[in-house]
Design goal:
The structure holds three protein chains of three kinds. Chain A is built from 14 helices and no strands. By secondary structure, chain A is mainly α. In chain A, helix 3 packs parallel to helix 8, helix 5 runs antiparallel to helix 6 and helix 13 packs across helix 14. By secondary structure, chain B is mostly helical. Chain B is built from 13 helices and two strands, in the order E-E-H-H-H-H-H-H-H-H-H-H-H-H-H. In chain B, a hairpin with a 2-residue loop joins strand 1 and strand 2. The longest helix of chain B is centred in the N-terminal third of the chain and has 35 residues. Chain B starts with a strand and ends with a helix. In chain C, helix 6 packs antiparallel against helix 7. The radius of gyration of chain C is 21 Å and the shape is globular. Chain C is of the alpha/beta class. Chain C folds into two domains: about 160 residues, Nitrogenase molybdenum iron protein domain (Rossmann fold, 3-Layer(aba) Sandwich), CATH 3.40.50.1980; about 130 residues, Nitrogenase molybdenum iron protein domain (Rossmann fold, 3-Layer(aba) Sandwich). In chain C, strand 3, helix 2 and strand 4 form a beta-alpha-beta unit. In chain C, the strands form three sheets. In chain C, strands 8, 9, 10, 11, 12 and 13 form a six-stranded mixed beta sheet that branches. The chains are: A mainly alpha, B mainly alpha, C alpha/beta. Chains in contact: A-B, A-C, B-C. Chains B and C meet through helix 3 and helix 7 of B and helix 4 of C.
Chain lengths: ~325, ~350, ~350
């Protein structure tokens, strides 16, 4: 489609505008529809009414969480797919989700932590540790952290951590009850405070990831060719892992493990702008929060008086979309 | 390997394999007997035997004959089924890491069953049919997605991991729909559990083994040929795709029905054939040896799962995953160091 | 009370000694229908297992505590008048497995909720009622929670059965089975008198809206008691209305936070649960969380400090009916009910 530099840049601008529109939609839509004036009042002229409070303390935080988590997951997914040359790569494969889940469950079940602000940091710590372990195990032996070894190490560690998580949740019904909703992923758990605390980590991750564009392009040519071109493969892998940890780990800590955003959005970006990671990364950065916020809005509208959690919508849309994409573009590079 | 001649028939017989099988079976029976006596209602062995002979009280008979006995039998059966299925896959793919639980077949069967429990509120007796359909659909999807002039290398594994992720998300969603008690039941089942197994399950897995194991054994000759590589196999054996397809069908059938009987018990399919191989010290151990070790693994794990946090019972899949995952990591590390990984 | 209990014990021993027939109903057999299933006993059951708080308290109320072989899963402290009877009883924090239940050799299992007999088939279910009666163990589910078929659970409750009348019917039927009909009538009369007194006092007064809220966010949503929950009945008797009575899909309904704010109930009861030693005081931190949350600051209940610690045990169908009705009435009509 858009293949020229100008075309891709213009397209990105359009995507940003669309994102802004979706952000506004996210503030307006929900159990009750508000108008732009209500948003202005809630932000600048707070009166303490129900409307003001709903917008300021419920809609603002969840929209911000959707922006940050979406950007983080989209970017992390693109980086993972680039670094592993596996179109099926998803931040979860590196063990992020399994580590966060176990940490959250341990916090709720064993340590009795009740509030989100409490277990958010457990989630992040768990994600970090799991990613590091997966990376180390995958690096053992010839070739370093090759795509396949990483995927297998991730699967094995996920199974191991998953079994411990299972054990804890099955031993205590109330833990199971909290966990089964957390594990689907939701934007409503993050308060304004959590979002503010998550911001620096995600910002750092975004900056780091965006610098990897050309290195990922070189890696896509194959490791031998990349080495000839002067890519420091080991360094790129470490930086990429760091970026994924920061981005996906924080996003998961904030909103639970949201599925498919990291998996599907980079493919959409690739379909729109081609295989150049210097464009795929920023496009994923913008497209993913658009998708996530839209999914969240849909979830608010279709199941009133309850809501469908955003992770459910992304799975329901993302799975068939992903399958369609995979079938159209033959699985290359495996 | 020794040659065995009985009258006009001769066949090759692997002595080490048979020895391993027999020992594994003996150990399995011992652990099974112990399992019959242990539980929340402790019944000493003589009384167990009495009850089996039909002379126990109504309650004791219910506990031993309707509850523990089928549980142990199902455990042995699914252990054997998973192990043989894993052995078939591993040898077909010439890769120790291609195992139905890693590549998502079990996950597909599990999704179907959870769908039936949470959405349709089905009775447990309908689960086998649904789980089997689920596993077949998943296997077909993986095959179709991964096929590119044949299935080579790690593509199958990677597609499988991807499909497992998809299936896992949908399953997690279904768990939020149900009330907490149904969710707990479904969660226990998802981890692979022998709780609440009754005679219909035992009969199901019994019939599965009766039908599919001879098929697998009959196909093992083809298996040996296929392991030589496609070109050589085509020269020696003729229709490679057909025999490979049939063997895959047997493998999927074993894994799918075992999952239907007891949920997706992880790592048995992966670990049992590998253990058998190490014990037999031959490059290729018999399918039956793998099956015997699989049975032993599951029965022993179930005993551990039931007793370790008594009175709370863990699902057997938690123990097999807890023991099996590190084993997988070691396997990977060893393969990588020797250079066969990548 | 004590002499009555002693007389009951003596009477039941006498009748118990009479019939030991194993097969076929004898002359002393009593049959009552519970949730569509016949419950037949040959003389009053002697070994009772009570699962869940309502069942445990009903056993104590009927005065047959000495026949308890086991109790399980209290949601809160038992009412003070039963504390002595509960002391020293075998107690399981979580539901025991079917095996553990059977190892106590019960002949009657009384359950306050229907999930123990659901066909879930995992360790947490006792198995279907039929599978237990085949072994000579009779079972009973509280009538306001009858599932439409054996082996089903909460999703199959018939909303028309949720009433105090069904609690009285259970008391009468159990009184018949256990041969403690006099005691049962005493309990029924007490409940009816107290509830009628409250209803009289609050008649004609405006009905405030009341929400029963479970603490904790499940994936960011809230869980409230819906129409089929027994709390609806109790609130109505106390002169109020359940703010979420129109949501009838389940007893506990999940809703979004925005929906809760939109409905703006006059009173919020935070329903704490699930420990034998739980008291309202321990639920206070959850109340604080609601009061401190800026999103809720404009709600009527928050502004008027009408957010109250409450117990799940209070709004379960059973012999707490009168007690809970009085508690709610004192809360929402403090001027009419002291």
């Amino acid at each position: 489609m858009t293949r020229s530099w100008g075309g891709r840049a213009a397209g990105l601008l359009v995507a940003c505008v669309v994102l802004l529109g979706v952000v506004l939609l996210s503030l307006l839509a929900g159990n009750q529809w508000f108008g732009p004036h209500d948003v202005y009042v809630a932000a600048a002229d707070f009166t303490g009414s129900d409307t003001d409070r709903v917008i300021r303390y419920l809609r603002f935080p969840r929209t911000a969480a959707g922006l940050l988590a979406g950007a983080a997951l989209g970017l992390a997914g693109a980086v993972m797919q680039g670094i592993t040359r596996n179109p099926l790569a998803d931040p979860g494969i590196l063990g992020v989700n399994a580590g966060a889940a176990l940490a959250v469950v341990a916090a709720i079940g064993l340590l009795g932590v009740q509030s989100l602000t409490g277990y958010v940091w457990f989630a992040m710590g768990g994600a970090l540790i799991a990613t590091v372990v997966v990376y180390l195990v995958g690096s053992v032996g010839r070739g370093g952290a090759t795509p396949v070894k990483l995927a297998l190490a991730g699967a094995a560690l996920s199974a191991l951590l998953g079994s411990v998580t299972s054990a804890i949740t099955l031993l205590d019904l109330s833990t199971l009850n909290e966990f089964r909703f957390w594990v689907v992923g939701s934007l409503t758990m993050a308060t304004g405070g959590i979002v503010t605390q998550a911001l620096p980590f995600i910002a750092a991750g975004i900056v780091l990831a965006l610098t990897l564009g050309s290195s990922l392009n070189q890696l896509a040519l194959g490791e031998d060719l990349a080495a000839t071109l002067g890519t420091r493969i080991g360094l790129v892998r470490v930086l990429a892992a760091l970026a994924v940890m920061l981005l996906a780990g924080t996003a998961t800590a904030m909103a639970g493990p949201i599925a498919f955003v990291g998996l599907a959005v980079p493919h959409v970006a690739r379909a729109l702008v081609g295989a150049d990671y210097r464009w795929i990364l920023p496009w994923s950065l913008v497209l993913a929060p658009t998708v996530l916020l839209l999914a969240d809005v849909v979830g608010r509208l279709v199941a009133r008086p309850d809501e469908l959690q955003v992770g459910i919508i992304t799975a329901l849309i993302g799975a068939p979309l992903f399958i369609a994409l995979v079938r159209r573009r033959k699985l290359a590079e495996l | 390997m020794k040659a065995l001649r009985i009258g006009p028939f001769s066949t090759r017989v692997d002595v080490a394999s048979i020895v391993v099988s027999v020992i594994a079976c003996a150990l399995t029976l011992v652990i099974a007997a112990v399992s019959l006596t242990l539980g929340d209602y402790e019944i000493p062995l003589p009384q167990v035997l009495n009850t089996l002979a039909g002379k126990g009280s109504l309650i004791m008979t219910d506990v031993v004959v309707n509850n523990r006995l089928p549980r142990v039998l199902v455990g042995m059966g699914v252990g054997a089924a998973f192990a043989i299925s894993g052995a078939i896959f591993q040898r077909l793919a010439r890769n120790p890491l291609v195992s139905p639980d890693l590549i998502g077949i079990n996950a597909g069967a599990a999704l179907a069953a959870v769908l039936m429990i949470t959405v349709f509120g089905s009775a447990v007796s309908w689960l086998p049919a649904g789980a089997l359909i689920g596993s077949l659909l998943t296997a077909t999807s993986i095959y179709l997605l991964a096929y590119k002039k044949g299935i080579a290398g790690y593509r199958l594994v990677l597609v499988g991991i991807g499909i497992t992720a998809i299936v896992g998300s949908i399953t997690a969603y279904l768990l939020t729909l149900a009330d907490i008690y149904t969710a707990k039941t479904a969660s226990m089942w998802l981890a692979g559990s022998l709780a609440g197994r009754s005679w219909p399950h035992a009969i199901l897995i019994g019939i599965t083994l009766l039908v599919l194991v001879p098929a697998a054994v009959a196909g093992s000759r083809q298996l040996r040929l296929l392991e030589l590589g496609d070109d050589l196999a085509r020269t020696l054996a003729g229709r490679v795709e057909l025999s490979r397809g049939l063997l895959i069908a047997v493998g999927v059938g074993l894994a799918g029905l075992a999952t239907a009987a007891a949920g997706p018990i992880g790592f048995v399919a992966l670990v049992a054939p590998q253990l058998a191989r190490r014990l037999v010290a031959e490059r290729v151990a018999g399918l039956l040896a793998a099956g015997a070790i699989g049975a032993l693994l599951v029965v022993a794990s179930d005993l551990l799962a039931r007793e370790i946090f008594a009175p709370t019972a863990l699902p057997v899949g938690v123990v097999t995953a807890f023991l099996g995952a590190p084993y997988l990591l070691i396997l990977m590390a060893r393969a990588n160091r020797v250079g066969r990984g990548g | 009370m004590k002499t009555l209990a002693a007389a009951v014990v003596v009477l039941s021993l006498l009748t118990g000694c009479g019939g030991v027939a194993k097969a076929g109903p004898s002359a002393t057999a009593t049959t009552v229908k519970n949730c569509g299933i016949d419950v037949t006993v040959d003389g009053p059951p002697q070994r009772v297992f009570a699962a869940y708080q309502p069942a445990i308290e009903m056993v104590h109320a009927l005065g047959i505590s000495d026949r308890l072989v086991g109790t399980a899963y209290l949601d809160a402290e038992v009412l003070p008048q039963y504390a002595a009877a509960q002391q020293g009883r075998k107690y399981y924090k979580n539901l025991p497995s079917r095996e553990e239940l059977l190892s106590q050799n019960p002949d009657f299992v009384l359950s306050g909720f229907n999930d123990v007999f659901s066909s879930a088939g995992s360790d947490s279910s006792f198995g279907s009622r039929k599978s237990l009666s085949d072994l000579g163990v009779q079972t009973w589910i509280f009538s306001p929670l009858c599932p439409t078929a054996d082996g089903k659970g909460d999703e199959a409750i018939d909303p028309s059965t949720v009433s105090m009348n069904n609690v009285y019917a259970d008391l009468r039927d159990l009184g018949k089975l256990f041969n403690v009909s006099d005691q049962a009538e005493t309990v029924i009369a007490d409940q009816q008198k107290r509830i009628a007194a409250v209803e009289a006092k609050v008649a004609g007064a405006p009905k405030p809206t009341v929400a029963i809220l479970r603490p904790g966010l499940e994936g960011g949503g809230l869980t409230v008691s819906g129409g089929p929950d027994f709390g609806t009945v109790l609130i109505r008797q106390a002169g109020g209305v359940n703010a979420f009575a129109d949501l009838t899909s389940k007893r506990n309904v999940k809703i979004s936070v925005e929906e809760f704010i939109k409905r703006d109930p006059d009173y919020i009861l935070i329903s704490g649960c699930c420990d034998a030693g739980l008291t309202e005081a321990q639920v206070q931190p959850d109340v604080q969380k609601i009061l401190a949350n800026p999103a809720y600051a404009n709600l009527k209940a928050v502004r008027n400090k009408h957010v109250v610690p409450w117990l799940f045990a209070h709004h379960s169908a059973g012999v707490r009916g009168a007690n809970s009705t009085e508690l709610i009435a004192k809360l929402i009509h403090p001027d009419l009910v002291k």
